[in-house]
Predict the 3D structure of the following.
Amino acid sequence: MHQPKIDKARGHRLKQAMTASGHRKATALAAELSISPAAITKWTQGHAMSVDHARNLAALLNVSLDWLLIRRNGPDWLRPGQLSELEIDLIGKLRERPARITKLLIGLTTEMPKVLASEQPKRAQP
């Protein structure tokens, strides 16, 4: 039997778009799309989705269908000078933590010495 291909990168892009648009819970997003939360969970793991579902997701999350499916024509928040994919991931992880942990991490980063522009890692291009 043919196993459908799992595209973990697409699932990751979906998670990024959910984070950037403020959709932290699969259940809330599923309700807006009138689908099951299990479908959202499967899609964030990289399982296949219909073109209609992908189109509806892209519209609701304010990203292009091209970017969501094949990572072409990224959203504004991934354009140069905006947040990098790593920064989007960090924001998502911070939103999952209690406020006291976030405050502690902000305090910690404030105490760290700043890195010169020449020493900073290169930003991933969309």
Residues 8-20 form the longest helix (13 residues).
